[in-house]
């Protein structure tokens, strides 16, 4: 059975309710309006016009293959791209990787500016799947989808 409040307790409760309804709702309403306004501003910032693209798509440059070595499941190649930028090197690696097939599990693709260069612009490690990553990289290469390319682009001359 519910507890009956005394007249004094009922009076205190009514007084408190008046204070909450008289003053307490105003800050809550203001906060609600502020949240809605911030949400509307946040949505407008996410339009394509408000933010520049992270990276412009770069077409793969012409490249020459050099030092190509292939075994049963692994391979490596150098791609020579004179005056390559990092974006061009990445595009060249991605272009080359589209044609890696067969039984390859692990394939290293390195972009250099000339056949005599000792330093590279970018290096990509193409891995077929999670099992290949475990076997060939100790699980260091992770991805949401496979095959995946782990890129490293120090470009010390750029």
Keyword list:
158 residues; alpha+beta; five-stranded mixed beta sheet; 3 helices
Rg, Å, rounded: 31 Å
State the strand order across the main sheet: 1-2-3-4-5
| H/E element sequence | HEEHEEHE
Largest sheet: 5 strands, mixed
Q: What would the principal axes of the Cα set say about the shape?
A: elongated
Return the structural class: alpha+beta
Number of continuous helical runs: 3
Q: Say how many strands there are.
A: 5
* Helix content estimate: 25-40%
Short characterization:
37% of the residues lie in helices and 20% in strands. The protein is built from three helices and five strands, in the order αββαββαβ.
Describe it for me?
By secondary structure, the protein is α+β, with helices and mostly antiparallel strands. Helix content is 37%, strand content 20%. It has 3 helices and 5 strands. Strands 1-2-3-4-5 form a 5-stranded mixed β-sheet. A hairpin with a 3-residue loop joins strand 1 and strand 2 (74-80). The longest helix is centred in the N-terminal third of the chain and has 39 residues, at 7-45. It is elongated. The model is unreliable at 45-56 (pLDDT under 50).
């Amino acid at each position: 059975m519910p507890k009956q409040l005394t007249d004094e307790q009922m009076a205190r409760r009514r007084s408190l309710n008046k204070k909450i309804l008289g003053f307490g709702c105003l800050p809550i309403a203001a906060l609600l309006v502020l949240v809605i306004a911030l949400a509307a501003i946040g949505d407008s910032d996410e339009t394509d016009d408000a933010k520049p693209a992270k990276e412009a798509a770069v077409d793969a440059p012409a490249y020459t293959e050099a030092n190509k070595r292939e075994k049963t499941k692994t391979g490596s190649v150098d791609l020579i791209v004179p005056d390559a930028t990092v974006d061009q090197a990445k595009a060249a690696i991605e272009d080359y990787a589209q044609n890696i097939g067969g039984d390859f599990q692990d394939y290293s693709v390195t972009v250099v500016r000339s056949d005599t260069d000792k330093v590279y612009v970018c290096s990509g490690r193409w891995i077929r799947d999670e099992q290949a990553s475990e076997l060939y990289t100790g699980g260091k290469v992770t991805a949401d989808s496979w095959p995946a390319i782990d890129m490293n682009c120090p470009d010390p001359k750029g």
